[in-house]
Amino acid sequence: MTLLIAGLAGFFLVHLVPATSVKQTLINKIGQGGYMGVISIASLAAFVAIVRGYKAVPPTESMQLWQPIEMAGTISLVVMPLACVLLAAAYVPCNIKRYIRHPLLTAFVLWSGVHLLANGDSTAALIFASFGIYSIWRRMAMPYAIGTPTPLWRDVVVIIAGAATFATLHYYHEALSGIGLPLLI
């Protein structure tokens, strides 16, 4: 559990850097590229610690807090593709950004919410509630800016990329989390 908690703490601390003066200090010392590299490597290291920490928690250390709802699997098949499209929209200029405030954080809110419905144990609750609360807080703190219109083909690319991301994550879910999901086809 220690590795999991350290990974979560590291991940959120790294993601709070942009909201502080530390960001500009780092950029002044190592440049924008260096800053992005350091943040990316630190984020990846923290994410790996979260995944490894989750897998390392013995079932006896994780207590059941609530009973997962029976429809969680069905709900996730609706919500997770949408979350994956929003994830893709965060990185591609598209019209979705004109209507959804910070698509990446919105994707994390959806991801964490559906996973809280499907997992009632304390270890999963720690991960998904942490990401959900952080994402809601950051999303609310960010200013809303209406983007400029983009060609419709960009939205199509985002939807295809989101669908591919969902299919990949669904297929490799067991390798990533240790929990297998039924095949879609």
Strand content: under 5%
Please bin the fraction of helical residues: over 70%
Number of helices: 8
What structural class is derived from the secondary structure elements? mainly alpha
Largest sheet: none
**Strand and helix order:** HHHHHHHH
Strand segment tally: 0
First-last Cα distance: 36 Å
Low-pLDDT parts are none
Q: How does the overall form come out from the CA principal axes? A: globular
Q: What's the gyration radius in Å?
A: 18 Å
How many separate domains?
2
Mean pLDDT across all amino acids: 92
Question: In a nutshell, what does this entry contain?
Answer:
By secondary structure, the chain is an all-alpha fold. The chain has helices spanning 2-16, 22-56, 72-89, 96-99, 103-118, 122-141, 152-171, 173-177.
